[in-house]
Design brief:
The complex is a heterotrimer of chains A (about 160), B (about 750) and C (about 80).
Chain A lengths: L3 E8 L2 E8 L4 H8 L18 E4 L2 E4 L12 E3 L12 H8 L9 H14 L5 H7 L11 H18 L1
Parallel strand pairs in A: 1-5
Antiparallel strand pairs in A: 1-2, 3-4, 3-5
Helix pairs in contact in A: 2-5
Chain B lengths: L23 H6 L14 E7 L5 E7 L1 H5 L3 E5 L12 H10 L4 E2 L5 E7 L2 H10 L1 E6 L6 H5 L25 E9 L2 H7 L2 E9 L11 E6 L5 E5 L4 H12 L6 E5 L15 H11 L3 E4 L2 H7 L6 E9 L5 E11 L7 H8 L9 E8 L14 H19 L3 H8 L18 H10 L11 E10 L4 E9 L5 E5 L7 H13 L6 E5 L16 H28 L6 E4 L2 E4 L10 E2 H6 L1 H4 L3 E9 L5 E11 L6 E11 L6 H20 L30 E6 L21 H13 L5 E2 L3 H10 L11
Helix pairs in contact in B: 7-8, 10-11, 11-19, 12-13, 14-15, 18-19
Chain C lengths: L1 E4 L1 H6 L5 E3 L5 H11 L3 H7 L1 E5 L2 E3 L13 E5 L5
Parallel strand pairs in C: 1-5
Antiparallel strand pairs in C: 1-2, 3-4, 3-5
């Protein structure tokens, strides 16, 4: 067993503490110690985006961050996208547009798409495609995912007005 | 009583609409549980030690140090998996593929496995296992493996399908010949005869979820396994057989599946997890890394293909010939045979012959990948179709239409086709607005066709009506792309109730009878058929109960729009009873109301598609960009059009990846050079445009709703469509897929095409 | 009735591409073929399907074969 460090962090608004081996990646900490299995491992090398989370608002692959680096930071995972039991518009539009088939990449896409829309509320199709280029989907050919993000942007902008 | 599966042309109220999927909320909130998302009290973590050599004799495995490491609870080698296969060669191959037996047959072949209290300990234990190898000569290329001087991988393989059978072992496992007519006479009638050779590289299914399972074997011999699989029942059969367990004592639950595409129809490390659990007497969780997924699971065959087509000037194909060499990895496969059966399937060719060679090499055991073997043969056929069309001065779509297979044509594998959709698909392509979009400099357009079988198979469902009238439907095919929606829609359609009143779930192996693996585009066809019959079975019970409630004979009850009513003027004063009302009184009328069906779903239709692809080729870099893409495919009947489109788009995207980027790269040392998503590059969002779809509905006469499977066919045309588009853009014909920038650039250089010379298609 | 065979099945039937068999069901057809060509037994174990008038039956051996049907014995395939 490698040396463990006590990590105190905020995950989806809740303060969470866990003892974390120094060589453990945040993806494993979130899944195995915090119990958030919505964060998926597709590759473990930062290539597939299935483990996407935001760390202090910044989109990262949690497989490329050490668990100990989360100390004192603010984490959002797919489990944190719903508010008061209501699906986030992106979540709803992914269902409405059939933007998922197997669904294993969906948590990463939702987190990445939210990070995009937070930063750029009116992305073009090309901007959406490049913003999501770090998330691999093998089922959909991305068509319905892009459409779902476009529809979400529209709805979020309507709500803002 | 056998049910009539004939197409009836009934009118639909629910089917054909686009409802939200029942697993949607779980999947967008992270609650859906996949293979790696389950845990059990006291579970151990398993890791597998794999061969770094392409081919090596294993002279010794010393596990003593690993076993002594604190926290290690079990170490297994092939000694812990005695051969119980009793001469069943196929099963013996599966066993040997799960773990090497004295010889490592490919880079990544499992050699030993450990179960330990945590990941860190398990990894440490792997490093303490000392394996002594004696490296043997290897071969990874299909053409090289067929040469007489190639190292022979198995001394028990003698080429089958040739007369007389050879007495010397070699790497060619089988020769298959299919076809009909007189090929020589056909070529003699041709005005033009063209021969070409093509190569395709090995690709992987590339599902985003790695293989994962949680196995728990008890000391009394009972066991459970939670696993990501397309076939919980076949996983149960194979695992129980390899480990000497009773089927009924092994309960397999299929988790949500994070993609399969054929790669999760076969067991890989699941027997190892069970063996570790049995040895450690603790639950064991085994999750593969991506590196392991690439090196030791899946891939499809790499191929080398010769094709020859003879045609008259009027466009009639007089004869055609295919010679297909497919490697199946380290074990005998059927992949060349499947190429023979599918290559010319889109065309009506009176004189045709296809010869397939199944070849063994030092690569992982090839698995089915979406329409297995068809895309490679189609790459050769669809490419040469354009070459011949150009030679005789005919439009490539018209040339295809001139020779297109219709009802009554003979398939390459023998039978006469019933109603099929390839002519309609080609006509739809011809009329499609996409064909009129203007192309600019360096841009080109290609069209290609594709065929894949559908299958049916053993299927059963349980439909239980709750006392409140809501319905649970248990199915045994897994949901790989929205199937629960489709099955719920079919149940609602038959019962005459709302879609929202049906909840569908995928049953485990202890709760439902045997269901064949969800493969061969069979899910919607087969479980759809069983669901229709089960609902009709339940309606008979509902009518009987309504008869009791209304005090009339059952024969006078009719079922319409979810309600029972008594026919006849004398009964006109009686109330109509809804399904809910009948269900509420079920305790007084005979107890729970249910419908069941067990069926061998035969009569699957054939799947055909035609694709249009526009590309732009950068003459400086060789990079091909997909500008616009259209899929036209026959679905028979689209139950849930969103998920039919989803299958079309996803299959096309995989085909495009194969056409442009994806390939296994082996080094001289026989090791896989690119076992990761960075170097094995599948299409990303910015690589693709929207993929337009057009669903044709030519009913399958052997399904009550006319359903054809739609899952696989559309991976078949893209290699040809992309190749034809590149040729149209550059004037240079690519004969090696993937048509990656470096290959395109080399081809342009060879042809002496510089950037300036490339003109509009 | 004439039964056509292809590929490995043809090889196992001593190279016969077409065989005359009198059979009312798929079971009877396969039993009689294996009786006549014992080498077909291994192919049947690997898996065969029967196409009757263009409809492929992979599993159900109780299916009846009409008198003048076009019958093909072919390998039993699966898919991805």
């Amino acid at each position: 067993m490698s040396e463990a460090v006590l990590v105190s962090t905020t995950v989806n608004g809740d303060v969470v503490e866990f003892a974390c081996p120094t060589d453990e990646v945040l993806l494993d900490s979130l899944r195995d110690r915090v119990g958030l299995t919505g964060v998926k491992e597709g590759c473990g090398t930062g290539d597939c985006g299935a483990c996407s989370i935001t760390l202090d608002g910044q989109l990262v692959c949690s497989c490329l961050v050490l668990g100990v680096e989360a100390d004192g930071r603010d984490i959002t995972t797919v489990e944190g996208l719903t508010e008061d039991g209501e699906l986030h518009p992106l979540q709803q539009k992914f269902i409405d547009h059939a933007a998922l088939q197997c669904g294993v990449c969906t948590p990463g896409f939702l987190v990445a798409a939210k990070a995009l829309l937070d930063r750029n509320p009116n992305p073009t199709e090309t901007e959406i495609r490049y913003a999501l280029a770090g998330n691999l989907c093998r089922c959909t050919g991305y068509d319905k995912i892009v459409r779902a993000v476009q529809a979400s942007a529209k709805e979020l902008n309507k709500a803002r007005r | 009583m056998p049910h009539d599966n004939s197409y009836t042309g009934q009118e639909f109220k629910v089917v054909g609409n686009r409802f939200a999927r029942p697993d949607g909320v779980d999947k967008v909130t992270g609650r859906a549980r996949y293979g790696a998302d389950a845990s059990a009290p006291g579970q151990l973590v398993a890791r597998v030690l794999r061969s770094p050599h392409a081919h090596a004799k294993i002279t010794k495995i010393d596990t003593a140090k690993a076993e002594r490491l604190s926290g290690v609870k079990a170490v297994i080698t092939s000694d812990d998996l005695p051969d119980l296969t009793g001469g069943d060669r196929g099963m013996a191959d599966i066993l040997e593929n799960c773990m090497a037996r004295g010889r490592a047959l490919y880079d990544g072949h499992a050699v030993a496995a450990v179960a330990a209290v945590d990941e860190q300990t398990a990894r440490k234990a792997l490093k303490l296992i000392k394996v002594t190898y004696e490296v043997l000569p290897h071969v990874t290329d299909v053409d090289e493996a067929m040469k007489p001087e190639a190292p022979v991988i198995h001394d028990w393989v003698f080429t089958g399908g040739v007369n007389p059978q050879p007495t010397k072992p070699c790497n060619v496992a089988n020769r298959t010949e299919m076809g009909h007519g007189d090929v020589d006479a056909g070529f003699a009638q041709a005005d033009v005869v063209i021969e070409r050779s093509y190569k395709t590289e090995q690709t992987h299914q590339g599902y985003i979820e790695p293989h994962a399972c949680l196995a728990s074997v008890n000391s009394d011999g009972s066991a459970e396994m939670w696993v990501t699989t397309q076939g919980p029942f076949s996983y149960r059969t194979v695992c129980a057989s390899l480990l000497g367990m009773d089927l009924a004592k092994l309960k397999v639950t299929s988790s949500e599946i994070g993609g399969g595409f054929g790669g999760k129809t076969h067991v890989w490390a699941e027997p190892l997890a069970l063996a570790l659990s049995r040895k450690a007497n603790r639950p064991v969780k085994l999750v593969m890394t991506r590196d392991e997924v690439f090196r030791a699971t899946g891939p499809t065959a790499s191929t080398s293909i010769d094709v020859k087509v003879g045609a008259k000037k009027n466009g009639e194909i007089t004869a055609a010939e295919l010679e297909l060499r497919y490697q199946g990895g380290a074990f005998p496969g059927i992949w060349g045979m499947l190429g023979c059966m599918t290559g010319f399937a889109c065309y009506d060719i009176a004189n045709q012959r296809s010869v397939g060679w199944d070849v063994i090499v030092n690569r992982p055991k090839v698995a089915a990948y979406r329409a297995p073997s068809a895309p490679m043969a189609a790459y050769a056929v669809e490419s040469i179709m354009d070459v011949v069309a150009e030679e005789i001065g005919m439009d490539p779509v018209d040339f295809r239409l001139k020779n297109v297979a219709k009802e009554g044509a003979q398939a390459p594998y023998g039978p006469i086709y019933g109603p099929i959709g390839i002519e309609s698909a080609l006509n739809a392509v011809k009329e499609n607005p996409h064909m009129k979009v203007k192309l600019k400099k360096n841009q080109g357009r290609g069209v290609a066709c594709g065929f894949w079988f559908n299958i049916g198979g053993q299927t059963c469902v349980d439909l239980n009506i709750g006392t409140d009238g809501s319905v649970n439907l248990a199915v045994g095919t897994v949901d790989v792309g929205g199937a629960r929606s489709s099955m719920g829609m079919i149940a609602a359609e038959e019962l005459g109730i709302d879609y929202e009143d049906v909840k569908v779930h995928v049953a485990d192996t202890a709760s439902l009878g045997h269901n064949d693996t969800t493969e061969g585009s069979r899910g919607t066809f087969s479980s759809g058929m069983a669901t229709i019959f089960a609902a009709r079975d339940a309606i008979e019970v509902l009518k009987e109960r309504a008869a009791q409630m209304l005090d009339v004979p059952k024969e006078s009850i009719q079922w319409e729009n979810g309600t029972a009513s008594a026919t006849g003027a004398e009964n006109s004063n009686l109330p109509t009873l809804t399904l809910k009302e009948i269900a509420a009184k079920s305790h007084n009328t005979g107890g729970p109301i249910a419908g069941h069906n067990e069926v061998t779903a035969d009569g699957a239709g054939m799947g055909f598609a035609a694709h249009i692809c526009d590309v732009e080729v950068d003459p400086e870099t060789g990079l091909t960009k997909i500008l616009k893409y259209t899929v036209v495919q026959d679905a028979g009947k689209a139950i849930h059009p969103d998920y039919v489109e989803g299958q079309f788009q996803g299959a096309a995207a995989q085909g495009i990846g194969w056409a442009l980027n994806e390939e296994y790269v082996y080094g001289e040392d026989g090791r896989l050079q690119n076992p990761g998503f960075l170097d094995y590059r599948i299409p990303v969002c910015s690589d693709l445009p929207f993929i337009d779809t057009m669903i044709l509905e030519i009913p399958n006469p052997n399904h009550p709703y006319g359903i054809r499977g739609v899952g696989e066919t559309s991976i078949v045309p893209p290699l040809g469509a992309v190749g034809n588009a590149i040729a149209n853009a550059t004037g240079v014909r690519m004969n090696h897929a993937p048509m990656s920038p470096i290959r395109v650039l080399e081809a342009l250089d060879r042809a002496g095409v510089s950037g300036d010379q490339v003109s509009a298609g | 009735m004439q039964v056509s065979l292809n590929g490995a099945l043809r090889s196992a039937a001593d190279g016969n591409g077409s065989v005359d068999v009198d059979a009312a069901t798929i079971r009877e057809l396969i039993t009689k073929l294996v009786d006549r060509f014992p080498k077909l037994s291994a192919e049947v174990d690997k898996g065969v399907a029967v196409a009757i008038d263009g409809v492929v039956y992979r599993d159900d051996w109780t299916v009846r074969i009409p008198d003048d049907a076009e019958v093909f014995l072919m390998p039993r395939i699966a898919g991805g």
